UniProtKB/TrEMBL annotation:
It comes from Entamoeba invadens IP1. The lineage of its organism: Eukaryota, Amoebozoa, Evosea, Archamoebae, Mastigamoebida. InterPro entries: PGBD. This is PiggyBac transposable element-derived protein domain-containing protein. Residues 1-132 form the PiggyBac transposable element-derived protein domain. It comes from the Eukaryota.
C-alpha cells in the first residue's frame, strides 16, 4: 500500500494473493516501483519509507535518480552490503558505523541488546547522530 502520511489517504494498492508458481526476482523493488510510478509520472518528489523486505541499494539508487528519497531498514543477508556493516564479532554494544555510496548512507547500529540494526537512507547529508535521552 502507498499512502500519504499527511492525509492518511491510500494512493495506490496492490493485493498479495499468495505465492505464484515461479519465484520472482527483485519482487520488493518491483512492488515499490509499481506503487510510486503514478506519482513519478506526475513529477512528484517524495520520500519512501519501507521495511527490510523492500529496502535495497538498487531501490535507493532508482528513487534517487527520480529525485526521490528512501529510508528503510535492511536485512543483514543482503549481498550488496559491505561485510563490515554485517559483522557483530568484536563490536562494542551501542556503537554506530556509517557507510556511503553515492547519495546512499548505510547506518550499522549495534545496540545494547547485541542486536544489529541496518538503516539505509538517502534523506540526509550529515554523518551526525543526535542522542536523545528517554525518561
Amino acid at each position: 500500500m502507498c499512502a500519504d502520511c499527511e492525509t492518511g489517504m491510500t494512493l495506490n494498492l496492490q493485493m498479495y494473493c499468495g505465492k505464484c508458481s515461479g519465484k520472482e526476482d527483485n519482487q520488493g523493488f518491483r512492488v515499490v516501483r509499481d506503487m510510486v510510478l503514478p506519482m513519478l509520472c506526475r513529477g512528484n518528489k517524495f520520500t519512501v519509507v519501507c521495511d527490510n523486505f523492500f529496502c535495497t541499494l538498487r531501490l535507493s539508487h532508482y528513487l534517487a535518480s527520480c529525485g526521490c528519497q528512501l529510508l528503510g531498514t535492511m536485512r543483514i543477508n543482503r549481498t550488496e552490503l559491505p561485510d563490515e556493516a554485517k559483522t557483530i564479532k568484536g563490536r562494542t554494544p551501542d556503537t554506530t558505523i556509517f557507510f556511503s555510496k553515492g547519495k546512499c548512507k548505510l547506518i550499522s547500529y549495534f545496540n545494547e541488546k547485541k542486536k544489529l540494526v541496518l538503516v539505509l537512507s538517502t534523506c540526509h547529508e550529515k554523518n551526525e547522530i543526535e542522542v536523545v535521552e528517554q525518561d
